[in-house]
Description:
This protein is α+β, with helices and mostly antiparallel strands.
Amino acid sequence: MTPPPARRRRRTEGDSAVPRLALPRRGSVRRSQMITTYGVGSLIAVDNESFIVSGIDDAYRSWPLDEAPNIYEHRLARVLGVTHFRLPPASEDTSKDGIRVRRFPLWHSCPKCQSLQHVRGFNPLAGKNVCTDCDDEPLVPSRFVMACEDGHIDDFPYWKWLHRKNRDEGVTGRCGGQMSMRFSGRSASLRSILISCTCGVPEVSMEGAFRRSALTDLGVRCEGRRPWLKDAPAEFCTQAPRTLQRGSSAVWQPVLKSALSIPPWSDGLAAKLTDHWEDLRSFSSRAEIEIYLKGAFRGDNSISADAVMELLEAEQEEDPTREGDSDAAAVSRYQALRRQEYERLCSGNALRDKGREEQFICEPPVTDPSVLAPFGVSRPMLVKRLREVRALKGFTRIADPESSSEGHEAALSLTPTDWLPAMEVHGEGVFVRLDENRVDNWAESVAVAARVERMRTNHDRILRERATDPAEVPPSPASPRMVLLHTLAHVLINEWSLEAGYPASALRERLYTDDTMAGFLVYTATSDSAGSLGGVVAQGEPDRLAEALHSALQRATWCSADPLCIETRASGVGGANLAACHACAMLPETSCEHNNILLDRALLVGTPEDSHLGFFTNVVEH
Length: 622
């Protein structure tokens, strides 16, 4: 059969000469999903088509900057090396345009004629995804792709997979045949997906394609392709490619960095000075700053020289460049953000700071906190108003975004930009701090140290296995203090989900744990005012908090999976948990900072054999 003549194709979606409004819409997602679920480099399915979200390069106008409002969080921006952040475009109802996407994967199959080939081989009309030989039958994008831990992604090598048994016969080029894909229907396994070719090679199934070395054994190597970046050259890559399902969560995992807006950066003044920082940093006296402000902000007397000097002094103290530029320094810079937040959460706001523009209001409860003394909890703080900025720094494929080094992170753009996509969320929370001396005395127990050491060893092994250079992997954060606070935050969130009117998936933890910190913030944050209804703050009153702690710890003494859960020697990913499962201590993925690892409720309430192992043994009934 003579193939039909090739049709003229219009310009591609990424061509900057095409007016933005000329491209058809392919679907819509929520604004927050552009950071957490469908960010740059992710795959998104729309009806029977599949696309990859384009990068943020300004040169190719992949993101409509006129529809992406600026947001500012000075502390986080300095750590990430940008000047500001941008919100993704709004929903389809209010956005004139949207984010660019590119078709991926490019290999498709026709369910009617069973043909398997590159989408160009079906010769569809521009913007269509149909088989012209089968009366415009909709095509099915490949279910399989291949990716590596450095973030590269490419189409699955169907031809090499099918012709692998002919390698010894000197078949080095294309056979010239037409491949087909069919489903035997005998089962839902990979064995039922069969691929054949008109050249006569034996039909093979997809069984075994997901083995770690399946593609390496065929001589397939990663070619360093980055289809989310227009005109991006292939990178040299030494990582072994792996087969993944197109819809798997391992195909795209965001690397998110966040910070709370705290004084003196939380009153909106820093945002007004964004375009003036370089000039202001050059002045050394109050008089020079005052003269500059009068010229730059004529008629606006709301910006005082004293307030600007306070910001400049705070910026100097928080300068992230003082720590160096290594990966370890990057970790310490992020930890420095937490220490600043911890100090502010402990001290709260002065009354004069609580203006209408203030985005951080934190104060102690008015009732006596002595009722919390048996739990070793210091005075809680009620965070009645908070603002959090969550920025998409990069993404990973296959590798765990929390455990991989920065070398595994794939970039959002081909050339550096001065902004990153981010979300601005508002909410409320309760800050809980434990008595550090009591925690230190408890952590000296040999039994406690032994349990945590087992978890740390397993976690360190996971980090080394997933790292490009094991020598540069930071050590596991597991410590008696960290595991204790992490597990306590989890059981308290589960308890408050029953009392505060929010589901557990709407509550989040923010841990503050190192040698100088021993606390956590449980909060709810949304992109509108729904996160500040007072339901969580009300739980921070000492009487209510004591009741919730007692109930949560009492629940933690028993799990429906016991005695298997409490007696297990290792659980969770790579054995990084001990006594923790979905029936007792684990949370939805949106709530946990550490992907539900480094948990052990035995450190809270002890075990049947050793009740003194638990930090709260004296306040629970066994």
